[in-house]
Design brief:
Layout: E1 5-16, E2 24-30, E3 35-41, E4 51-56, E5 73-76, E6 100-102, H1 113-126, E7 131-142, E8 155-159, E9 182-187, E10 192-199, E11 244-250, E12 262-267, E13 273-274, E14 279-281, E15 287-289, E16 293-294, E17 299-303, E18 314-320, E19 326-333, E20 344-345
Parallel strand pairs: 3-8
Antiparallel strand pairs: 1-2, 1-5, 1-7, 2-3, 4-6, 4-10, 7-8, 7-9, 9-10, 11-12, 11-20, 12-17, 13-16, 14-15, 14-18, 18-19
Length: 346
């Protein structure tokens, strides 16, 4: 588990590409009183060395709602869903299938991981009031040590700007839930958020809810169909991901909400799926147990009970199978539920 997890809100003033065996893209950032170096991994120490990444230049998620009110500087975050911490698996920040492995450096512009991160950072540097939120582990301040990249004193910064669970045995002590690293960037001139998410290929997508350690994903014969291949990071055989997708949610029905809200599931596989033991969870981790069979290719709306409400202020919806493994998850914002009676599509 990380010792000092949190988020730094500050202004970026300089970015430097990462090179070498343990490469990091370096960002020089400042708040009102302090300088920081943000070390963003762009190459893995383990094979395969290329990191998986997702750059979302129009990031929309309820996690951004409270960030504008945060003060400049570093804010420690407890490793739980209510603190504002990030979790790539449980927070439904993005669709994992859209992550891609990308080399650190390639000839030419705009085609490697350094370039992908630098593009967003340079856009933030160019905009006077843009800010960067760096999630990860803090080091320093180091009163007698100048920063090795930018030379300021005291040395001070944030690292582990990547997924921090499901690690290989070499880094298993860093495992934990609700402590993942990322970069979120806000550009006020266009009222737009961007995000950078990074993961080592050696890390697992299925982790223990308490420890963040990798858990196995066996396929019970006749129970779990082969997963639907994603457009990018295809799940390994036996993993349940994407066999069933959340494709819609009626969060703000006409009249009273509770007891009328629905979540629509689509079985994208070629096999019927017994839903006994499967469940839908809301942002508060309240559970609705599913029953029956979802036929191959079938879409069906499930009405949530009043004990499992969906917030009109934005939230997340997660689907798990009979082994408790995440199959799919989505998020929605407050703006998406402004029209009463309309179903959100994912």
């Amino acid at each position: 588990m990380l010792a000092s997890y949190g988020v730094l809100k500050a202004r970026p003033i300089h970015g430097v590409d990462g090179r070498g065996a343990n490469a990091h893209y370096q960002i020089h950032m400042v708040d009102d009183t302090t300088e920081y170096r943000i070390a963003v991994n762009v190459k893995s120490q383990e094979s395969p060395s290329d990191l998986e990444f997702l750059v979302d230049d129009d990031f929309r998620h309820p996690i951004t709602e409270p960030l504008g009110a945060k003060p400049l500087g570093f804010t420690p975050l407890a490793s739980n869903p209510n603190s504002g911490a990030l979790d790539f698996i449980r927070g439904n920040l993005f669709d994992r299938s859209w992550m891609r492995p990308l080399p650190t450096n390639l000839p030419g512009p705009g085609n490697d991981l350094n370039d992908a991160v630098d593009k967003l950072v340079q856009a933030a540097i160019a905009e006077e009031h843009a800010v960067v939120y760096a999630y990860g582990q803090r080091w320093g301040p180091e009163p007698h040590t100048r920063d090795k990249i930018f030379g300021f004193l005291p040395g001070n910064g944030i690292h582990d700007i990547h997924m921090n669970q499901g690690n290989s045995p070499r880094f298993v002590n860093d495992d934990g839930v609700w402590q993942d690293g990322a970069l979120l960037l806000f550009y006020p001139s266009v009222n737009r958020w961007a995000a950078v998410f990074l993961k080592f290929q050696s890390q697992s997508w299925h982790t223990d809810d308490a420890t963040g350690h990798t858990i196995s994903t066996p396929a019970p014969p006749g129970e779990t169909p082969q997963p639907q291949p994603g457009p990018g990071n295809t799940p390994a055989p036996g993993e349940p991901d994407f066999t069933v997708r959340i494709v819609g949610a009626l969060v703000n029905p006409k009249g009273a909400d509770q007891g009328q809200e629905t979540v629509t599931l689509l079985n994208v596989s070629d096999a019927n799926i017994n839903l006994s033991g499967w469940a839908i969870f809301n942002k508060a981790d309240e559970r609705f147990n599913l029953t029956g069979t979802l036929k191959a290719g079938e879409a069906r709306a499930f009405t949530l009970p009043i004990q499992v409400p969906l917030s009109n202020n934005g939230g997340i919806i997660t689907l798990t199978n009979n082994q408790g493994l995440k199959v799919h998850g989505v998020s929605y914002t407050k703006d998406q539920v402004s029209r009463q009676g309309w179903t959100i599509t994912f």
